[in-house]
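Form P-L/3: holo structure prediction, ligand flavin-adenine dinucleotide.
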Amino acid sequence: MTILPDFRYIRPANVDEAVAALAGKPGAAIIAGATDLLPNLRRGLGEPSVLIDVSAVPALALVEETADGLRIGAGVKLAELALHPVVQRDFPVIVEGALAVAGPTHRAAATVGGNLCQDTRCHFYNQSEWWRSGNEYCLKYEGDRCHVAPKTARCFATYRGDLAPALMVLGAEAEVAGPKGRRKLPLAELFQDDGAAHLKLAADEVLVAVTVPNSAKGLVGSYAKIRIRDAIDFPLVGVAAALKRDGDKIGQIRVAITGSNPCPLPISTDGLEGQPWNEATARSLADRLNKTAKFQTTTTVGMRYRRRVLLASARRLVDDLWEKAV
Ligand SMILES: Cc1cc2nc3c(=O)[nH]c(=O)nc-3n(C[C@H](O)[C@H](O)[C@H](O)COP(=O)(O)OP(=O)(O)OC[C@H]3O[C@@H](n4cnc5c(N)ncnc54)[C@H](O)[C@@H]3O)c2cc1C
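OUTPUT (holo model):
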């Protein structure tokens, strides 16, 4: 195990102080529950000059009902999120996403912001310094070749966060603070399809909260995760779905995936609304999942298997929701 790099440690008391601490320090990193960042640093993955610990910012730790919807602070711990009575009552898909993350000890420390902003993963990247140096590093960090797709000039490291798809199907918005103030954006727009730079946050921005709109209350949602060890493991693939029935037709349907691409992705459901949920509609959804999910050999588990379980899980998930939503 590599010794931690030297860094300055700053513990701001509020969001403005956190933003000010980031300003002009390109090598700085936010740290929250530390369950993703610290294991990476211990493996020599990253050398931040400054760590800005946001765990003492009270405003980030709030879950509030607002006029816009349920506002969940980026510093809320996943264990607390899963136990929150309003989340349990109105948005069980969030509870399922949060409880799918790692194990109980992780969830006691891990935060919403850290979960959403966690690094992408690849079996050529999440390795010791010794292992990586023996393989000439990789395009994501310190190397110049992607071992997964050597003929390309881009990184395919995979996003494996469990919470993002659960929030995406509810139409959640992200709230970001930076030197120019705050901005809101659909959660899906926080991400981009690049394993080496999967977040569209600027270096001097902090994720402050996510808001689940009131309109999501009528949706019935669920999250399915496939992993090697049920007790604790990243998703090989994960799929969330939320729907509302309009009698025998689909009133509204949203689907989002994780574990397949460098970022979590909503699946286009245009044209499915107004259709009955039957074999033809299920096939159409499967085609869309097939087109969007771009599996690569970023884990030891084969791409074909991951694709098959994605399709099977999505089908089972929507079948169940269809019955539940009556
Ligand atoms: C053994 C093990 C198993 C795991 N299993 C899973 C799993 O099954 N599913 C899963 O989703 N994750 C898993 N994780 C990863 C991690 O534990 C979780 O994603 C966790 O939610 C990260 O939250 P954190 O608060 O600890 O993040 P941190 O480690 O503190 O931060 C993670 C990243 O987010 C950034 N960040 C944190 N907060 C903010 C903010 N407010 N604004 C901007 N950037 C921010 C940090 O700079 C860092 O890059 C696992 C980790 C381990 C070690």
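COMMENT: The chain has a mean pLDDT of 96.
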